[in-house]
Amino acid sequence: METTIKDIARICGVSVSTVSRAINNHPDINMETKALIMDAIKKYNYIPNNSARNLKRSESNTIAVLIKGITNTFYTNMLKVFENEIQKKKYSFFLHRVEEHQNELDVALELEKEKKLKGIVFLGGYFYPSGEKLKQIKVPFILSTGGIADTVDKKSCSFVMVDDVRESYKMVDYLCQLGHRKIAIISAPPDDISIGKSRLEGYKEALKDNGIDFDPNLVRYKIDDGIDTFSMKYGYEVMKDLIKTGADFTAVFAISDSMAVGACKAIFEAGKKVPDDYSVCGFDGLDISFYYEPSITTIRQPVEEMAEETIRILFDMIEGRIDTESKLFPAELVVGKSTRNI
Amino acid sequence: METTIKDIARICGVSVSTVSRAINNHPDINMETKALIMDAIKKYNYIPNNSARNLKRSESNTIAVLIKGITNTFYTNMLKVFENEIQKKKYSFFLHRVEEHQNELDVALELEKEKKLKGIVFLGGYFYPSGEKLKQIKVPFILSTGGIADTVDKKSCSFVMVDDVRESYKMVDYLCQLGHRKIAIISAPPDDISIGKSRLEGYKEALKDNGIDFDPNLVRYKIDDGIDTFSMKYGYEVMKDLIKTGADFTAVFAISDSMAVGACKAIFEAGKKVPDDYSVCGFDGLDISFYYEPSITTIRQPVEEMAEETIRILFDMIEGRIDTESKLFPAELVVGKSTRNI
Fold first, then answer.
1. What percent of the residues of chain A are helix, what percent strand, and what percent coil, each to the nearest 5?
2. What is the pLDDT of residues B78-103, one digit of tens each?
3. What is the pLDDT of residue A50?
4. Shortest CB distance from A51 goes to which of B45, B102, B236?
5. Which of residues 314-333 of B touch A (CB under 8 A)?
6. Does residue A337 lie within any of the structural domains?
7. Are residues B175 and B268 in the same domain?
8. Is residue B78 domain-shared with residue B39, that is, in the same domain?
9. Highest mean predicted confidence (pLDDT) among A46-55, A108-117, A139-148, A320-329
10. A339 part of a folded domain
11. Chain B hits for A48, Cβ within 8 Å
């Protein structure tokens, strides 16, 4: 007869939940009790199989989460929410990393065929599908927190994101209100027709509305295959170049927090201070924007809420209540110590 | 007749590789050329299908990479190497996130059955399998950069990691050589019998060899389900408590770089300086250890080399050249500006 979790609990003289805590490596358990339980499990050859059962039961109720690059800690919190929300629905999900050279739509079409998916989340990244190809995806799908190329008909698909133009406008407008007139931007390369383009657009509009002439010399980016665009290294390298060329500016808007961290480092290495010499701000609201010294003024995306909404919409589609639905979330300007009045 | 990539190149008067660059969103392409190509692709309904074909061809040559938690940017660089190395072998891989409450071994056994895997990489996390269960995995597998519980027979499996005891000894010994005698440690909770335990052990041994009495009051951790052990927030909260209790110390060893960043922030908030008031060091060699201000003294794990070795060993097993093989990599002490002589 198969040993059960109840048998182990009885043998060890503990509750079933204590056995469960031991098995699941839960911190809230006495070390000796845990050792006792693990010994009993071994001795009586008990095989905890809840998680295996869960996995099996839900194998035909599967959501694929496609993600391009995992360089961004931004997604970690979203994945935790996905995990919880999808589990509540008695579905399982798997994460599929889309390789840099792959088109996420091709990957999605292939996965759909092979795995009998019930739904797809495209997490982050850019989205450049042709209309034709979009129609080939037969299961409900939603784009979450990434960018959609401006060539895509936004009514033809569901998405959850922030308004990148508006939020980046908010950030740059804030710098203008602090008195800055010479504001540089660490942007994505010009072939980025998605998030990078939108955030640059917000920058331009904010300058215009504040009566500041656009200076192309203050728009900086780097084309280098070896460096991820939204990374610390990217921000660092672009900022080093900007300082080296002797450009005249008092503030810099980095279009991601990671870039902003790298930019600060380049400023420190040049013997300058943040915000005394240059104000620096970012975008996203990553943990590091709080823990960095100085803390970084940023636009915080409501990632948990966006993740919840992503799953809600996806299941409304799966369960036939809607065809498509989209939501733009407002983001929050969080003032850190990296920006100052001038 | 199906439109091919050659047709598109001919129609646009460009080379095939330029079309490929346009499709794959490569930065090194003229914007107008790209627009022209994308228009032609749409007009002639060309479906780039290389990546789809790759996916299909290799569907029976699949490696699963199991990862518990994706809070650590440490893994990003490893995944890039996995991607390249696995592709060279004409295999594909998929990333499977193991949920916090799941046992990775149960998940692995289930995946093995369903997906006809050729191999498994357990990336990071802790590894607590019973010997019985380990034998149930029929395909080659390897543990990479995580910790193995000291209850596991290390000869029964392949692994690639650093020697956590030795490397943490190196870090603490360095602090001793700088003259520190009162060294606190931000450690994992005591039920961690893997990486956390090993790094604490190295700390204790280094103190002993330097003739310093072990002071349990300087070993600090936090038990809180809501906070990931190796995170910035964890380091921040533990350091706040440490300072609040008025403990007497001049240096602190945080067992991860993220913890070290959080610890620095708590020190700054208390109106103190790093390293003037407290020296701080971390472990892992994450990007942030370089970009933080001050840069953080750390132990850099050779992640790229470890990732390459992981795949080499796995394929030596898959191709029948070896049964198991393990390698401990030496890590490098990287001196930042967060530590000083006293």
1. 45, 15, 40
2. 887 888 888 888 887 777 777 666 77
3. 44
4. B102
5. none
6. no
7. yes
8. no
9. A320-329
10. no
11. 103, 106
